[in-house]
Amino acid sequence: MWKERLLEYMRSEEYRPSTVQELCERLGVTSAADFRAFVRLLNEMEDAGDLVRTKNNRYALPEQMNFIAGRLQLKARGYGFVIPENEAEADIYILQTALNGAMSGDRVLVRLREERGKGAQAHREGEIVKILERGNDRIVGQIAIYAHHAFVTPLDKRFPEDVFVPKDAVGNAHDGQVVVVELTSYPTATHGPVGRVVEVLGYPDEPGVDILAIVRKYNLPEAFPEDVLADAERIPLEIDPAEIARRKDFRGETIVTIDGDDAKDLDDAVHVKRLPNGHYELGVHIADVGYYVKENSPLDKEAFRRGTSVYLVDRVIPMLPPRLSNNICSLNPKVDRLTMSCVMEIDGQGRVVSHEIVPSVIRTAERMTYNDVRKILEDEDEELRARYAPLVPMFERMRELALILRDKRMRRGAIDFDFDEIKVRVNDLGEPTSIEPRPRSIAERIIEEFMLAANETVAEHFHWLGVPFIYRVHDEPDPDKIIHLNLFLHNFGYHVKGSAGGKVHPRALQEVLNEVEGKREARMISMVMLRSMQQAKYRPECTGHFGLAAEYYTHFTSPIRRYPDLAIHRIIREVLTRGSLSPQREAHLREFVAEASRQSSERERIAQEAEREVDQLKMVEYMQAHIDEEFDGIISGVVPFGLFVQLDNGVEGLIHISELSDDYYVLHERQMALIGERTRRVFRIGDPVRVVVIRAVKEDLRIDFGLVEHLREATYVGGEGPGAIVYDEDLTPKERRETERRRREAASRASGRRERDDKRHRARRDRKGEARAGVRLSDWNDGEEERSAALGDMLPHELPYDAWDEEYPDPRAQRGRKRGGRGREDEARPSADGRIAGGRFEAASTRRGGYRTWPTWEADGGSGRGARTSGNGRSRPGEKPAGKRKSEAGKSGKRGSRKKRKR
């Protein structure tokens, strides 16, 4: 009662930050009991981040005081982003020095600073002022055991500090093993995290330990609790005849499932037939999991917690126990199964002219695979056509209808990114044996179109009923991304129509894809466009699906492996059987679908990250057997520190900029290219290249390539637009010879200059004694070049500029940078000789013996942690070492020094 009234008052325009007494007076809190309850409410809301309290004990909403609550996501180099709980808010960039003890995954309260950057590089910056909820209580890492204690180095690079483990908390772990530690003390400004070993996974090179470590890292629940298994055991494996009698019987229809070869959880089946009026009848029959998984039962609570099944290369972590997912709920052939059916009448234009959504019972005729259906329809395999002769006419009708539905979808403006799926195959020991791109065949397209039709039909039906529901939504792209995409397309002579101000219809994007189809820049433009899209999510409001150009969309077709599908199945049955919902039930369901949408979106994101990391792990392991071998690939990303290249088999790695030794290369954002300063040589997204595998490091999930040959040479001739870059294949023989001559001369000059620079760097290090500090030029080139989530979800240009240098330092990019001055704490940059130029530099911190330690940096005119660290690297933060430091030379107060600095 008090909470709703309090929030309503605080959101009013008249509200000003108020004390407890003022709030009580305004809200009519008079009795002592009410006052105590009201104070408890204020404390709870403050702890949850719903309210903030000022220094003079006045309360206000966070947004009124420039605070925002959100979830912290750290990057490998220590900085991070806070994703606000309000989806309308942009992400907030957090410096490593502004974390204040927060760890990746924590729910935090952020105080906003000023917005930095302009245009596409503009980003909000903040400082974490309060940790509302810890996101992790366990960390996976490799243990190093000493005489009286141990340290666990996290495998997750987002946790940069080692965990101290007392000797009596090591358990059965042995030195070098991968373990799970439970945190007993979180990091603060004065000490690092402390924990105890709770599980030993094994040595890193033992079969299965690598994937198991990722499972633990993402806290993916493998084993089901006892009460959940007991709940599953109570479900009968036979269907009650009385329940069959209450349902529509489709057992007389010819119904099939079409899935992958190794699929066990078969949750969708289809049938297609022609009606007397020439229309098609499409039946999509989905396993009625909600009939077995009752609301608030142990099975339901566990499914809600898991959110989704997770598919790793060698295992599946199911949302439901196998007794349901692989048995009574799986639509196995030639057995009766309970389903929820959406039967649609579709005309020759792909329009759904009528539909029926009904609880049903089916018996599938065959368990078909994508490969077999593809061979029947595309290869016309005689043996398979003879084996499935009674079904072949239906498969051909399915193809007809699928093409009609797709044509209708494309006409309304849906976007179709036709990228191949990558399949990693492993042996019994978990070792990768092959990596195979798997193109979508007609069989996959049939099921895809049928499921899309059912999802849209169900979503529209229940949207107009106005009942609480979970929708699958895909928001419009960020206007800044569309503006940047248009600038990029302008280089090729293309334009997204109707995109003034960054607003765009999906049809306009598909028109660009149609226009570039078959051209050499097609793949490049498709990849850049895909990265301009938002991520789809679940929401209780029906706001449409941009990519599908659908006004109504939901997920109805996979209740065995997705919780939103299971939840709406129960809502559908309740509405169909009762006809309407009571006000109390409707209010409860509205609260439930909001929470289920949030939880399911979060669990889907975690599952996707885990699946991608396992795939990348096995790809790295696969490439370890191919060191020094050459492969053809496509440039898939261009960033200041080099080129990402995707091989024909789907493996992706980095050509570090240091490998491009013929010139100094600079990122041209509008061209989405690295361009040589002297040669004007161009490396651009989508260009074909031949590379050699230099190294593959499992610990860093990193594959490094060297450039063997650029298979589509081009030259930057200046300016912007279609004529700014000219490909050699478009030049005359004479122009091509002249271009090659200029490149050779420039490369020779660059090589000589680099050699002179290296000599100067070595001499300077010898003079200044920097070799004793362990600073080498290679320290900057051999840093961790991982493709972080920021690069996966955003274009490279959208990373804050200073984040580029912090995560991927490149010494050559620092040439000519002015030294000296105190600067902002994030403006320090390593110069070419490894020293710090201007401001403080946040070196990667480690934990040793409970103290924070940093490498011994020598700062030029800066004031940073390097200046406060003693020679042995073991001083505490803020502890001033004995003796005068060079970084303090400017504080002597001499006029001459100040005048010199002014000049």
UniProtKB/TrEMBL annotation:
Known EC number: 3.1.13.1
Role description: 3'-5' exoribonuclease that releases 5'-nucleoside monophosphates and is involved in maturation of structured RNAs.
Stated family: Belongs to the RNR ribonuclease family. RNase R subfamily.
Catalytic activity of the protein: Exonucleolytic cleavage in the 3'- to 5'-direction to yield nucleoside 5'-phosphates
Any Pfam family hit: S1
Stretch list, region Disordered: 722-784, 801-903
Skewed-composition ranges (Basic and acidic residues): 731-760, 822-832, 876-891
A GO cellular component annotation in the UniProt record: cytosol
Superkingdom of origin organism: Bacteria
Comp. bias intervals (Basic residues): 892-903
Keywords linked to the UniProt accession: Cytoplasm, Exonuclease, Hydrolase, Nuclease, RNA-binding
Domain named S1 motif: residues: 628-708
Organism: Alicyclobacillus acidocaldarius subsp. acidocaldarius (strain ATCC 27009 / DSM 446 / BCRC 14685 / JCM 5260 / KCTC 1825 / NBRC 15652 / NCIMB 11725 / NRRL B-14509 / 104-IA) (Bacillus acidocaldarius)
Chief location of this protein within or outside the cell: cytoplasm
Keyword Plastid applies: no
Keyword Zinc found: no
Annotated GO biological process: mRNA catabolic process
Example of a GO MF term: RNA binding
Compartments it resides in: Cytoplasm
Protein name, entry field: Ribonuclease R
Family annotation (Gene3D superfamilies): Nucleic acid-binding proteins (2.40.50.140)
